What does this fold into?
Amino acid sequence: MFKSSSWKHLRITFSYYLMPIFWFALALSPDWSMLHIILVWTALHLFLYPSSNGYNSYFDKDEESIGGLKNPPKVTLGLYYLSLLFFAVALGLALLVNFPFFSMVMIYGLVSMAYSHPSIRLKKYAYTSWMTAGFFQGCFTLLMCYVGLNGSGWVVWTELEVLVPGMLTTLLLLGSYPLTQIYQHQEDGMRGDRTLSLRLGVMGTFNFSSIWFMVAGMGFAKYFFDKNEEWAFWAFLLAMLPVVLYFFFWWMLAKNNEKEYVNHTMAMWMNKLSGTALNIFFLYYTYQLHLL
It folds into this structure.
């Protein structure tokens, strides 16, 4: 039932790009245990995120490049059931942590299903999908990780020391999300999905993302300086420098020739650079706060 094509659509390695939020939550955590680190990391990165990828792929039925797959194979019914199986395993692992973490994993999974399911399909609403993806892949995910790592509960939504970093991650996602759609305008348009990037156009997407990246950068600067962690701000700036340079390099290339440079390869390099930079920075940040 579970063909190799179905496993490819899970895009498990794509979880790497969402991993920085886990490390950020770990850095903020005062009461984590190794067991919770393993359970939370496994539930999210090996099962929940791949489940979401597979489920969305099944209903999107993309024929052109998507995140993590340059040439996606045709989807089968087996992919649908495999994505549900992965979701069930994620829920089972989450329940081993505590019920609040389980409930947040459940909510995240259901929202991700609503993103592409034809009866709701948030993806076809430009600003709704943008805000939903930014909030749930950013702030909600950081708080979900924090709850799992510390064995805490929904009261975390009242704790500014966690909520503020969560909103900072959302600001980053609000900037990067439109860039993940920038090479899919033709297919999204044919399918009737009026994505934010499609509405903005190629140059509009670059302009829009640059504004949100700037806002996110200022937010992180204020956050680190307010905590008297100037060293973290300079480390963050150093880590993000290659990403910023690549972003503006890509922007200039696209301005001169959209057809040649607005493609899957260029977008994936943006993901690779930003994902690696943020993983390195937040691992370093965690080390500095907990191990020194």
